[in-house]
Amino acid sequence: MLISFIRYNEKIDKFLYICVGTDMKLLFMYMKTYLMKRVFLVLSLFLASCSACTECSTSKEHTAKVSNSSDEYDFVFKDINRCIGEPLIAEYANKEGNEYSKEKVALGELLFNETLLSGDKAVSCATCHSFDKGGTDNLPLSIGVDSLPSLRNAPTVINAALHFRQFWDGRAEDLEEQAGGPILSPIEMGMASEEAVEATIRAVPKYQELFKKAFPNEQEPITFENIRKAIASFERTLIFPSRFDKFLAGDIKALNNEEKKGLHYIQVFSCTSCHKGTLMGGDRYERFGNDTSGPYWEYTHSKVDENGQYDLGRYKETGKEKDKYFFKVPSLRNVETTFPYFHDGSVETLPEAIRIMAQIESNIELTDKEVNAIESFLKTLTSEQKGRTLVN
Ligand code: HEC
Ligand code: HEC
Question: In the chain, which residue ranges form alpha helices assigned H by DSSP?
Fold first, then answer.
């Protein structure tokens, strides 16, 4: 009863979407989740009539394409760049101080796959970030040196260069800083010290050669810092667009009607208020679970750690009360391939993850049809590499 009272009404929503644009619509969605739907509806309709269905698109060309197309959900295309972002472009994600060079990237790729960088000589970055598995390992928790499990689920390295910080709690500023972490972590690659890493790599003649080429003019190019830089440099090339980018670039037919419907839903159910921008995430921290939904583990069935505690997220890093249960909002790009889901890999399937998100972040119970449409849309975010998507 309560749910049906606050439930999303497609007809009203479409009307608002077309007439007052996305910002009003999101505000409407937000208010209605807090049980003020009726009051707010009157207000919204009043405002809608004032704005008299005026132009809300950013591009006349997009508007023209909508009128020449026939899918029911074509209207999502109208102000797509303003609402979501610009298309992702497959180019080196440049970083001052770690500019592109062919030699550095090639060296970084070798190091990314190098098991000598681990204590038991059996683990490389690629063990947990495999490109056959969308840049991850498809395990709830990863398995590192001596078969020790990691504390969190491995996110993908694909497009990670464009995230505002690295790791679920954002504790590394960028890829250059991040790359040092796993090599020295006793449960990931387990090397004893930076010096031990340098000595191991210096002992390999091939690397003597390759580091000289990648870092010319340096007296001793094989340093821990340059290892980090080369690996990060390789990761900065992993910017892989998807079919959705064709849509963002102006091809209204790049998505079918069901996918466009899913795109509409992720906007009206406020998913895009957190999963923002071209990457649909990766640019902010948000709390996992809100004040009214209750704690996230009641939905995910997450396990406690050895101290009997659930993962407190960013709080572990900052010690500030306000950071409890805050995590980096993951990018939804490639989400089809990065199962299982959430920071602890506690949820196996994408439909389940979508349902939980709607319950605990947007306070809404989705129908199966809505979940299916959202899932269809999310699958358009699966990267294409060399003309094939990562899943086929
Ligand atoms: C034993 C498995 C394992 C190995 C080996 C490993 N990683 Fe990871 N990686 C993880 C896990 C688990 C996380 C998430 C940890 C966290 O957020 O607390 C992670 C996070 C990351 C991230 C952050 C992505 C994001 O979205 O925040 C990057 C980038 C990354 N790893 C790159 C690397 C590189 C480069 C190497 C090799 C030097 C490496 N990893 C080795 C498991 C591994
Ligand atoms: C209030 C902010 C917020 C809203 C709204 C939100 N999300 Fe999320 N989403 C997050 C955060 C934070 C996480 C990471 C949670 C964790 O694992 O710690 C996440 C994780 C996810 C994941 C798992 C990704 C992965 O790689 O494990 C999916 C899928 C997802 N969200 C989809 C959605 C959908 C669909 C909606 C709308 C119904 C939505 N989200 C609404 C903040 C939000």
Answer: 2-6, 10-33, 37-51, 60-67, 80-83, 102-112, 125-128, 175-178, 180-184, 194-202, 205-214, 224-235, 243-248, 257-268, 297-300, 315-318, 350-362, 368-379
